[in-house]
């Protein structure tokens, strides 16, 4: 399927935008704002176009391949856009646009080079989803992490510096493991192109298979760190809660990079028969279940809304990994639907953390500050109540919080509930449910119950027992991203059937990767002045 240069645009666009933002300097704030938000919106449009073009192919194996520098695989850099890639690019586009818009309310002025770092972050995320080569995956992984270091420290402050140094140290260790794993795999296979490795995997000699598995396991640990798998996730909650609200919302995508790579590599290498079939599946299942338990305990022990949002990411990662460990296309399809809804909801929840925290804090006075004669609410004993009648900001924040809580906890009627029902149905419809399937069933229900308790407690604390606080000021540019992210979840609920059809086709293509392998290895360079076409044509 030919998508031309469109496949490379999600990488090139933020790279060029970042360079232009550096050239503009720090003083041209209006121009930088327009360029950053405009480029992010353009990236979303490109991702939507890719999603539409690939889905219009009508088959699970609809794939676009771009050969960098016109070198065919496995000798050159290859970018691959299939259904899973297009889905993740669209998710980056939606969250990235919402975060870019929210940051323009003031966070972009909290430190230097926010806009270039933001675009480089998007470039790293998009590149990691598009690349078809393990070494270039490492390159984009490092680009993404380098930008995240600066963004995590954006705004300075002791907590950010302390958690940021921990975050950097853990990710540098993960990068070292990544390199060791790459070197081991290359020593055995002689290639790092994913499709080429998958094609050659069945012919690896038995004497070398143990070394290959060791390299794969080391590589997987690096991504299990990024996917916040227990016990490798102690860095996540301090780092995400210390980061500024828009950056924490963007970082909700970071853990999904680790999950994406594990889904991509595991289904490509170990799910279609052969001597290495199902390698690592039980580890992913057990690790995912342990992560769900850890995240649920964290939710139960957290009072801060920021920590609740961070532990919600841990629970979602554990759910996705345990679903991947099941090894069936039906469970993978439901897990992808869950991935989209959970990411959108948690990103919105991180944005709400700052807005909810403003009540009675940042210049929002208390009722004792109200001038005599102002119109305040009175109860039956003529005692002033909180705020004014139906304050818009309180109503907006309360409604947004309820929507986010329903999705995160998996309660009806929104997309989180549909995602969990789809997961439970797929697990129970297996031919012979294993002990792992029953554990997934139990922990899905338990984590939803715990999330409901935790979020209900937070809602009571922030919206019901508000003391004598006045409603906070919420700018339009801050409200729109929250409404947009939650609106996307509502659309996901309304159009759940076609989305589930799409994720079903995506999962079918993942668990039968022959079309992916063939598309990458059979795509030929374009004829040019120095490369003759068929039959010697210029």
> Structural class, from secondary structure content?
mainly alpha
Number of helices: 20
User: The biggest beta sheet, please?
Assistant: 2 strands, antiparallel
Shape: globular
Tally the beta strands: 2
Measured by DSSP, the beta-strand proportion falls in under 5%
How many angstroms separate the termini?
23 Å
Give the strand order, joined by hyphens, for the main sheet.
1-2
Contiguous low-pLDDT stretches (5 residues minimum) are 361-390
Radius of gyration: 24 Å
The ordered string of helix (H) and strand (E) elements is HHEEHHHHHHHHHHHHHHHHHH
The helix content, as a percent range, equals 55-70%
Look at the structure and give the mean pLDDT: 82
How many structural units, i.e. domains? Answer: 1
Could you walk me through the main structural features you see in this protein, from its secondary elements to its overall organization?
It is a single chain. The chain is an all-alpha fold and about 550 residues long. It is built from 20 helices and two strands. Helix 6 (about 160-190) runs antiparallel to helix 8, helix 11 packs parallel to helix 13 (about 305-325) and helix 14 runs antiparallel to helix 16 (about 415-430). The protein is globular, with a radius of gyration of 24 Å. Residues about 360-390 have low confidence and may be disordered.
């Amino acid at each position: 399927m030919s998508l031309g240069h469109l496949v490379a645009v999600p990488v090139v666009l933020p790279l060029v935008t970042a360079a232009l933002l550096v050239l503009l300097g720090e003083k041209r704030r209006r121009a930088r704002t327009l360029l950053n938000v405009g480029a992010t919106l353009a990236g979303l449009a490109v991702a939507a176009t890719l999603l539409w073009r690939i889905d219009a192919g009508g088959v699970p194996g609809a794939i676009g391949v771009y050969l960098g520098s016109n070198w065919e695989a496995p000798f050159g850099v290859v970018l691959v856009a299939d259904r899973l890639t297009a889905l993740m690019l669209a998710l980056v586009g939606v969250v990235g646009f919402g975060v870019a818009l929210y940051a323009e309310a003031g966070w972009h002025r909290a430190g230097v080079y926010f806009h270039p770092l933001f675009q480089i972050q998007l470039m790293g995320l998009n590149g990691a989803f598009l690349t078809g080569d393990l070494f270039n995956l490492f390159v984009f992984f490092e680009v993404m992490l380098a930008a995240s270091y600066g963004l995590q420290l954006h705004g300075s402050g002791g907590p950010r510096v302390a958690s940021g140094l921990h975050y950097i140290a853990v990710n540098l260790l993960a990068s070292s493991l990544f390199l060791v794993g790459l070197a081991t795999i290359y020593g055995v296979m002689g290639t790092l192109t994913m499709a080429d490795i998958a094609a050659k995997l069945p012919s690896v000699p038995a004497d070398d298979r143990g070394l290959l598995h060791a390299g794969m396991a080391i590589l997987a640990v690096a991504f299990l760190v990024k996917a916040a798998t227990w016990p490798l996730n102690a860095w996540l909650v301090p780092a995400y809660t210390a980061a500024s609200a828009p950056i924490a919302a963007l970082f909700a995508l970071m853990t999904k990079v680790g999950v994406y790579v594990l889904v991509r590599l595991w289904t490509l290498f170990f799910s279609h028969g052969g001597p290495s079939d199902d390698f690592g599946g039980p580890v992913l299942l057990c690790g995912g279940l342990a992560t769900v338990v850890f995240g649920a305990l964290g939710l139960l022990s957290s009072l801060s809304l920021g920590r609740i949002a961070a532990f919600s990411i841990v629970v979602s990662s554990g759910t996705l990994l345990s679903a991947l460990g099941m090894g069936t296309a039906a469970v993978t399809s439901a897990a992808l639907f869950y991935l989209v809804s959970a990411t959108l909801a948690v990103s919105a929840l991180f944005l709400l953390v700052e807005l909810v925290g403003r009540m009675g804090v940042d210049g929002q006075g208390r009722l004792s500050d109200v001038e005599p004669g102002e119109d305040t609410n009175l109860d039956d004993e003529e005692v002033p109540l909180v705020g004014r009648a139906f304050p818009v900001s309180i109503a907006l924040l309360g409604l947004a919080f309820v929507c986010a809580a329903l999705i995160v906890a998996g309660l009806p009627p929104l997309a989180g509930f549909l995602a969990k029902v789809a997961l439970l149905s797929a697990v129970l419809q297996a031919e012979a449910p294993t002990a792992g399937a029953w554990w997934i069933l139990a922990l899905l229900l338990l984590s939803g119950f715990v999330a409901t308790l935790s979020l209900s407690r937070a809602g009571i604390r922030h919206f019901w027992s508000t003391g004598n606080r006045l409603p906070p000021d919420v700018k339009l540019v801050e409200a729109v991203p929250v409404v947009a992210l939650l609106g996307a979840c509502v659309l996901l609920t309304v159009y759940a059937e076609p989305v589930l059809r799409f994720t079903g086709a995506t999962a079918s293509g993942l668990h039968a990767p022959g079309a992916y392998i063939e598309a990458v290895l059979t795509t030929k360079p374009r004829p040019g002045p120095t490369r003759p076409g068929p039959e010697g044509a210029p």
